[in-house]
Amino acid sequence: MTTLLLTGTTGLVGSRLLPRLVQEGFDCRALVRRDVALPPGVTGMRGDLDDPGSLREAVAGVDAVVHLAAIFRTGDEDAVWRANLEGTRHLLEAVTTYAPSVRFVMASTGNVYDADAARPALETDACSPTAAYPASKLAAEQLLRGSGLTWSVLRLPFVYGDGDGHLASLPPLVARFGLHPAHTYSVVHQRDVAVVVRLALSGAMDGQVVNVTDDAPVTVFEMAALVGSPIEESADPLANPWSGRMDSTLLRGLGFRPTVPTIHSAARDGIL
């Protein structure tokens, strides 16, 4: 049985991924800073990515690490860099010292790509993030790639589903960030994040950065409508129709087929 450590267990993705990993037969440890409710069969390991000394027991003896912990929606850029880059550095140092044979899977973001791209972004494209969150995640990717560990990086798009509230959080952000209703995002359902993580844990993605998407990008206008919060339509020109889009040809070549192919099929099946 594979023993793995999951970080970010109470977050948007981690809280939904963890029970699925348990169901798949993984022996799961969850890195937690305090006592929290965990799925049956999960071992809570007290530790903090800000405190390198607290990580030894959590990583000792594990076969794999799935690193999801991150901070993104905050105006405190120092906190973002501290959590996303320095926290990753501390975790990597602990792993390379106490469990150097692990397979290390890290979640990153499609926001690392150039917002002025002329097509959906490929993993080989140069990255030019302009905000602290994607910039810190890109820097963390570079740390991992130079760590000497067996690694893979999953660049996630807009993740939704299983009642996680992420879709519902989008309409209020439209005015705040001036999102055009026709702005189109690559997306993926929580169920398929789990599928991709399992594929990464199999070794199929070792040494690779991989874009993760479902079969059909979706507009801000459509997402708002799907959660019952319609936004005003607009025929104004869209600055760049490719911003927010990723090409997932590589992932499909590795055997991935989404179990939830589109956000509209998720709505039809009642699993938004």
Describe the fold and architecture.
There is one protein chain. With 272 residues, the protein is an alpha/beta fold. It has a single domain, classed as Rossmann fold (3-Layer(aba) Sandwich), CATH 3.40.50.720. The chain has nine helices and eleven strands. The protein has helices at 14-23, 56-59, 77-98, 132-145, 171-177, 190-201, 220-226, 249-253, 263-268; strands at residues 3-7, 27-32, 43-46, 64-67, 103-109, 150-156, 158-160, 184-185, 187-189, 208-211, 218-219. It has a seven-stranded parallel sheet, with helices on both faces. A two-stranded parallel ribbon has the order 7-9. α1 (14-23) links the parallel β1 and β2. α1 packs across α6 and α3 runs parallel beside α4. It is globular. The chain starts with a strand and ends with a helix. The model has no long low-confidence stretch (mean pLDDT 96).
Compact overview of the structure:
This protein has about 270 residues and is an alpha/beta fold.
Number of helices: 9
- E-strand count: 11
By CATH, the superfamily comes out as NAD(P)-binding Rossmann-like Domain
Rounded average pLDDT: 96
Write down the secondary-structure element order.
Answer: EHEEHEHEHEEHEEHEEHHH
CATH architecture: 3-Layer(aba) Sandwich
Helix content: 25-40%
Would you identify the regions where 5 or more consecutive residues have pLDDT less than 50?
none
Shape: globular
What's the arrangement of secondary structure elements?
Layout: E1 3-7, H1 14-23, E2 27-32, E3 43-46, H2 56-59, E4 64-67, H3 77-98, E5 103-109, H4 132-145, E6 150-156, E7 158-160, H5 171-177, E8 184-185, E9 187-189, H6 190-201, E10 208-211, E11 218-219, H7 220-226, H8 249-253, H9 263-268
Parallel strand pairs: 1-2, 1-4, 2-3, 4-5, 5-6, 6-10, 7-9
Antiparallel strand pairs: 8-11
